[in-house]
């Protein structure tokens, strides 16, 4: 399996873990079980599209935002996924903000742990 596919799988798993974490900890934040895979895929695709755009805007308009880009991308990903899928219910702005932190944290932890235990090839720098 190529490095690119393993990176994509690691991102999907990390996002799935983050979304599950938000579902378990936030009342009103829900993902229909049958829609879970679709929600994870749509959320990940929105992130992949939004990240370069937000990075570009951040560099030009507000360089101080550079450190928070991942949180902004997660927020946008949740908002757009909630709007375009029927399987995700965020449950209000406070849940959206809390879910942004939880999903980001879950995905961050997964991005550190998965290369250590599952995708060992991702630990090595690109060649």
Give your account of this protein's structure.
The chain has 127 residues and is mainly alpha-helical. Helices cover 71% and strands 3% of the residues. It has a two-stranded antiparallel ribbon with strand order 1-2. Helix 1 (3-25) crosses helix 2, helix 1 (3-25) packs across helix 4 and helix 3 packs across helix 4 (93-117). The longest helix is centred in the middle third of the chain and has 26 residues, at 36-61. The mean pLDDT is 84.
Topology, number of strands: 2
Sheet with the most strands, sense and barrel status: 2 strands, antiparallel
Report the total helices: 4
Note the overall shape. globular
Distance between the termini: 16 Å
Query: What would the average pLDDT be, to the nearest integer?
Result: 84
What proportion strand?
Answer: under 5%
Order of helices and strands: HEHHEH
List keywords for this structure.
two-stranded antiparallel ribbon, 2 strands
Quick synopsis:
With 127 residues, the protein is mainly α. The protein has helices spanning 3-25, 36-61, 69-84, 93-117; strands at 30-31, 88-89.
